[in-house]
Every structure is written in structure tokens, then in C-alpha cells.
Backbone:
């Protein structure tokens, strides 16, 4: 596959692994990069520059392929600055930015030979990212897991809208976890995809508990809910008594202060690391309904490329002519 995304990031397949808070570490990132995509490690949950440097160097012992570092800045304000300096000093190939205003990061990266991606949820955000100098944007539809936009726009509509609104490459995100999803994204005008939930249920996502992985592969497309909507930062999670409890408290008028322990990173870790469903939550998108096994990342890429070939053949048959080699 050849798109501007593969050219920009020096990868074989236009597939980017999401930042995955508390889960995106060297083993997963290297496996994705070795399989031909762009793997990423998560900066903010490593907390200190020393730990981030160690993780970057660990990735380099596991792969010689390009990889990225994700900065989910969100509520972290300026806390990411020392981590950003560590990533720049290590000359990482790519940096992705999610949450909050990315302008300070772009100002610091000016003149550095580091590719950049920004996660966006709408046209205006995509245009702003392009204006700031982003090399590509990842547009996430309402189906996605983790933090989403506030406008409830699905991927099928969002992607072509963003594509027609910017000149830089667009990657589709939200509800994508198969080769057919990749093919659909490309047909919508995207030049690649970002996947998060699908990579949780892989063997190299070693920090995710078996309970979390099993919950993802057991879930139907109806088994997710959105929390934090009343707080202005909606995010999609697996439906459990705990997450239903968060929603009930929101509907009763709970404030951020009322909910901060239930929606904290610590509560997230209690579920994804320990499998403690009564004390925490796990991010997941509606694509969980399409996930039914836990392959290696290489097996997943092989399955997806096979599905792309099948899909292309089907298009040939529908159109009644050979449009692919």
C-alpha cells in the first residue's frame, strides 16, 4: 500500500496504533512497527523524562523501524514539557498529540526533524492543526473508544468532511479494526487509519489484563457507553455496573470534583491492569463487536491485508470489470 501516510512516516501499511493510556509501551509499539505500521508509546502515563527515555530506548532495541510517541495533553496543562524535551532529545521519528491546544508543542518542534500527527474530531480542529503545521490529522468518529468529540459525528460522515477541508493527509479513526474497515476508510478519502481498541486485544499488549482483553472480545457493539459527557470531555468505555454508575451520577448533576476518583487514571488502571470491574473502567470502542480473538500483531496485520484483498476482489465483481491487478 502506498499513500502519503506511508511516505511521510516510512511505513509499509498506513496503520497507526493509538496512544492507549497505560498500555502503549515498547512491546506493543515495536510489534506494530515491525509488522509494517506505526507503533507508539504513551508519554504522559510514563510521568517522568527518565522513564520516557528508557521506554524510547527499549523500543529501539526491539525494532529498527519508525515509531511515535503520543502526548495526550488534555488536563495535563504544562506538565508535558519535560517529557517533550526528552522525546526531542531522543530524536523520535514521530509525535502525535491528543487533547487540548497543540500550539505550544508545534512551537517547540519547529526546526526539529520530527513528523507530527494530531487527533481531531471535527473540521475546525483539523484545519487548525494544518495551520499549526501538522503533517497529518487523525479524525476520530463517534464510534471510537476513549475520548471523542462533542458533536456525535460518525466516522462515515466525518472522514470525507475532514478530507475535503484540509490538504494534509487524513487518517480515519473510530470503529475500525479490520481490513474491510481500512478499505472503507481509503474509499472515503482517508490515506490511512488509526486503531486503538483492536490493539488492546493482541498478544503484545502485555500490560492489559486477560480480563480486559476477554471483555473486549466478548463485547457486542452495543456493550459500550459514553462517560463524562456532562463534563465536556466524552469518552467511550465498556459498559459495566461501574460505568453505568458514573453516568447515573452525571445525570444526577455530579460535578468533576464529585466524579474525579471514579474517572481517574487510577480507576482506569484498576480495571485494565487488575481486572477489577467493581472499582474501575476500561476504554473501548464499538469496534469491540468485531473483535473475537487475541492474535499477535503480525497475525492481525496478515488478516487485515488478506481482508483488503478479498474486499478489492469483491469490488471487481460488483463493478463487473477488473479495476485492480
Residues:
Amino acid at each position: 500500500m502506498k499513500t502519503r501516510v506511508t511516505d511521510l512516516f516510512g511505513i509499509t501499511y498506513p496503520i497507526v496504533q493509538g496512544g492507549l493510556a497505560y498500555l502503549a509501551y515498547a512491546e506493543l509499539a515495536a510489534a506494530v512497527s515491525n509488522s509494517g505500521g506505526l507503533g507508539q508509546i504513551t508519554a504522559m502515563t510514563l510521568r517522568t523524562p527518565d522513564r520516557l527515555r528508557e521506554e524510547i530506548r527499549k523500543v529501539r532495541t526491539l525494532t529498527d523501524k519508525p515509531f511515535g510517541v503520543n502526548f495526550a495533553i488534555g488536563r495535563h496543562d504544562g506538565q508535558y514539557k519535560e517529557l517533550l524535551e526528552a522525546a526531542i532529545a531522543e530524536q523520535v521519528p514521530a509525535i502525535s498529540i491528543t487533547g487540548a491546544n497543540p500550539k505550544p508543542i508545534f512551537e517547540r518542534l519547529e526546526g526539529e526533524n520530527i513528523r507530527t500527527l494530531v487527533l481531531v474530531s471535527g473540521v475546525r480542529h483539523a484545519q487548525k492543526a494544518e495551520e499549526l503545521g501538522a503533517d497529518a490529522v487523525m479524525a476520530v468518529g463517534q464510534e471510537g473508544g476513549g475520548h471523542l468529540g462533542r458533536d456525535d459525528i460518525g466516522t462515515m460522515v466525518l472522514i470525507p468532511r475532514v478530507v475535503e477541508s484540509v490538504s494534509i493527509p487524513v487518517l480515519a479513526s473510530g470503529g475500525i479494526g479490520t481490513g474491510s474497515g481500512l478499505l472503507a476508510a481509503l474509499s472515503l478519502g482517508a490515506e490511512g487509519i488509526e486503531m486503538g481498541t483492536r490493539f488492546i486485544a493482541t498478544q503484545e499488549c502485555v500490560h492489559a489484563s486477560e480480563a480486559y482483553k476477554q471483555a473486549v472480545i466478548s463485547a457486542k457493539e452495543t456493550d459500550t457507553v459514553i462517560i463524562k459527557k456532562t463534563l465536556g470531555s466524552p469518552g467511550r468505555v465498556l459498559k459495566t455496573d461501574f460505568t453505568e454508575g458514573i453516568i447515573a451520577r452525571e445525570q444526577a448533576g455530579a460535578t468533576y470534583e464529585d466524579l474525579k476518583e471514579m474517572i481517574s487514571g487510577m480507576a482506569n488502571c484498576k480495571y485494565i491492569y487488575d481486572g477489577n470491574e467493581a472499582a474501575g473502567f476500561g476504554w473501548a470502542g464499538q469496534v469491540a463487536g468485531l473483535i473475537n480473538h487475541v492474535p499477535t500483531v503480525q497475525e492481525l496485520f496478515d488478516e487485515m491485508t488478506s481482508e483488503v484483498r478479498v474486499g478489492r476482489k469483491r469490488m471487481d465483481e460488483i463493478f463487473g470489470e477488473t479495476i485492480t491487478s
User: Anything to note?
Assistant: The chain has a mean pLDDT of 95. Residues 1 and 101 are 32 Å apart (CA to CA). The two ends are 13 Å apart (CA to CA). The longest helix spans residues 297-319.
